[in-house]
Amino acid sequence: xxxxxxxxxxxxxxxxxxxxxxxxxxxxxxxxxxxxxxxxxxxxxxxxxxxxxxxxxxxxxxxxxxxxxxxxxxxxxxxxxxxxxxxxxxxxxxxxxxxxxxxxxxxxxxxxxxxxxxxxxxxxxxxxxxxxxxxxxxxxxxxxxxxxxxxxxxxxxxxxxxxxxxxxxxxxxxxxxxxx
Length: 180
Prior knowledge:
globular, alpha+beta, about 30% strand, about 180 residues, single chain, YbaK protein, YbaK/aa-tRNA-synt-asso_dom_sf, YbaK/aminoacyl-tRNA synthetase-associated domain-containing protein, YbaK/aa-tRNA-synth-assoc-dom, four-stranded antiparallel beta sheet
């Protein structure tokens, strides 16, 4: 089993996506001190593969999903963070939050272009400031979660509650539903 060389996130900026590193340095020191990062094998970036290879509990995985909603010609983007053991409620909750008629996962190429991050590594840290970031309330209860680092070759580790304190975050009850 490969090991994780976790270091404080501020020390790890060399292996994080540029928007992520730039956002980290703006965080208050009390939050930043609770965030770590580690390089990983990019082939193991997907949540299930990462959990199996590195022995990290699947319930500690949090996925950041870029959603696009449309009302007329207006397209609205948001990021949604849910535990890997749950499923994002796009058709009801996200649609209502964005106040749109239709919402769906943003196309991969568009998500990559708009975030400046790699697909499979998109994270709530360093997203465009105009986007809301919705975090399912269950994420905050996790003692530790692993999220993307903006690149497939690294992961970020932090207490779930810290996600609720990040800029542009709104904690939402029922953002996710139990996975079938």
